[in-house]
Specification:
Distance between the termini: 97 Å
Radius of gyration: 30 Å
Order of helices and strands: HHHHHHHHHH
Strand content: under 5%
Largest sheet: none
Structural class: mainly alpha
Oligomer: single chain
Number of domains: 2
Number of strands: 0
């Protein structure tokens, strides 16, 4: 048998070479291009975000059409075109998926920026007149309620049966109360706002406007389209807050 690392000459053997892993060997490999690594990382993030958004779109539609009891994680995964394991890995439970669906429906995207910090709110605050602010608010509510009114119904439906969903429903109503107070303060701060309006009355009127039930009633039972609902809001605001003139028009 030949001795270790035999060089072909009998009786002469060389000592076993010493490799420093992480040192000598690593220096022989080609360095990773930082730009390629960042590109791959960005692609992975984009892929994960796309999957999350697909699941949330499917979940929002499923909760809205089937309610809490009729929605399962498997149904959502099938609607989203992803595996059940993916839905469970990202959201964990049906209650957590419902919470994320509510945020998605209200915000209209997966961006975590709160509504109050978004451009639509800034435009209402910057509006020079009460009429302009109210028209912007009507458009703002139309967009939010069209996306979220039926998901809110699913939450309300489940609130008495699941403690975590009950907490979500309480938080949604707290957020709505904040929205009512913000709208009242913003309106009353406009230079042309009516001085005879009592704040309590203003807040009560905004509660009617912000209520998801108002949207559901007008679109389901009064058969208004989303455009007609927005026109109704503008008429309602003019009647209550301005001079009472005008009628709903599309």
């Amino acid at each position: 048998m030949f001795p270790p690392f035999w060089n072909g000459r009998p009786g002469i053997a060389h000592p076993r070479p010493h490799f420093e892993y992480g040192g000598t060997i690593s220096k022989t490999t080609s360095p990773v291009n930082p730009e390629k690594r960042a590109y791959r990382s960005a692609r992975r993030r984009a892929g994960a975000e796309h999957t999350r958004a697909s699941i949330l779109r499917a979940a929002t539609a499923t909760f809205a059409s089937r309610g809490w009891a009729g929605t399962t994680m498997r149904l959502v995964s099938e609607a989203a075109g992803v595996s059940l394991q993916s839905v469970e890995a990202i959201f964990g439970t049906k209650a957590a998926l419902l919470r994320a669906s509510v945020d998605f429906a209200i915000r209209g995207d997966t961006d975590s920026t709160p509504i109050v910090q978004r451009e639509a709110v800034a435009r209402m605050e910057a509006a020079e007149s009460a009429a302009e602010m109210l028209d912007l608010h009507a458009a703002h509510l139309r967009a939010i309620n069209a996306r979220s009114a039926w998901v809110a119904w699913a939450v309300e439906q489940a609130a008495t049966h699941d403690a975590s969903v009950g907490e979500l429903w309480d938080q949604m109503n707290d957020n709505r109360a904040f929205g009512v107070r913000w709208a009242a303060s913003t309106l009353l701060a406009k230079p042309d706002a009516r001085r005879d309006l009592a704040r309590d009355d203003v807040e009560a009127a905004f509660w009617v406007a912000l209520d998801w039930g108002t949207y559901r009633t007008l679109t389901e039972h009064a058969r208004l389209s989303a455009d007609q609902y927005e026109a109704w809001l503008r008429w309602y605001y003019r009647s209550v807050f301005l001079d009472g003139t005008g009628a709903p028009t599309t």
